[in-house]
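Components:
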Amino acid sequence: MLELYPTMLIPTPAQVLEVITEWMFGGKQFFAARFHIDLTGSLIREMVAFCLGGIVAIPTGIFSAHYKPIEQLVDTFVQILRPIPRTAFLPFAMILFGLGYPPAIFLIAYATFFVVYINVFDGVKSVDEELKRAALMLGANPRQLLFRVILPATEPFVFSGLRVGVGIAWGMVILAEMFATGNGFGYLLWRGYTFLRMDIVVANMLFLGLLGFLFDRLIVKIAQRRLRWVGELPE
Amino acid sequence: MGRRTAGIILEAKNVSKVYGSGANARVALKDINLEILKGDLILLLGPSGCGKTTFLNMVAGFLTTTGGILECRGKPVGKPDPSRGVIFQDATLFPWMTVRENLLFGPQVRGLLEKNGKENYEKRARELLEMANLTGFENHLPRELSGGMRSRASLIRTLINDPDILLADEPFASLDAYTKEALQDVFLDIWEKTNSTILFITHDIEEAVYLADTIYVMTHSPGTIKEKVEIELERPRDRYSEQFSEYRKKIYELVRPEL
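Structure:
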């Protein structure tokens, strides 16, 4: 058959489908019947690290933006680290944490932290001054002002941070898996490349896209439920 | 203490506000003197930038004075407090709370729901909602209300706290003319029913003449009180009567040089 393009560079849909079938259900190649291993590996890294980064970032961002002394301490540190691309921390992650889950989770959580932190920080800073005045005038004490007004007012920013963060975390999962783990979509993707098996690469890209889409939907759905008061949210 | 002094809610003696210091100092307000008695509806009128909102913010406790004496019920005005309730130009309702939750926010954060019984406040909330024509909208979110409804909700949210004085910062300025007129009537109605004391800021002469017992006309930079005008018109007032027009004209003549 006449080849319109070199299938070594760009695989045909049939080749990709074959890879996926073997990957899921078994066969003779090195990646046979290990789909569930790669899937759970990547999912655990994404979820654990994303939650970890987010859980640390939300209160840190809030307190840093709300209390000047904390801002001077935390935000200075953040601003020093921020310009260093998060991907550049991979060697350090591996030297410090070895191979497997720990360096991956460190790297992903670190990246998530920054994105969420910056959004939350800006969110707290941009709470309408009049809204705070209204709360004080109605009798709120500083604690109530923070928890009953500033926090809920910041929630849309938290979700936009989480939405960007979940995508960035997914990217970091792949990077970490390329170098630091023995399974996961990133691991297999890179394997595929080293064997010049672009059908494997594409099969992995498909699942990365699918899962990335699902993570995004998940955050958007939660945000839509929590933020009914905002009105229409961007899809 | 005479009967008159007993009725004084707010007193300003030579109150001033200077922004900045040294060569950059800008005098926003100078020698503001006024006295507000229980039940008064006082209008502070002046062009934008005259410092009237600055004065209101000082009474509210959002800003500090830089000179003079400012006392509410004989005590120097300090931090923001429920005894000095504010309604803002934008209704400034908490957008994530329903109308009812907004209404009960004040009593709740002050711990009054437990202290005085939640049902008492629920009852009071219902009365206020009715006065403000908001019955049936208790469970709506602010974004689901019209501008006029939000404005009414914000008024009763402040009133449920039983403030000594209500400070209104151009609350109807961003509403259309029809809504504004309707709201002025609701406002007067609530003022009479609750026997509130009100300091109302506006740049709208018609609004001032329609609402006020007394109008204080302000000068521009620095903001001072130019003249105190008592409006001796029967309520309800007719916006199209001759006396009404005369008052408008008189106030306009006072304001015009300040524009």
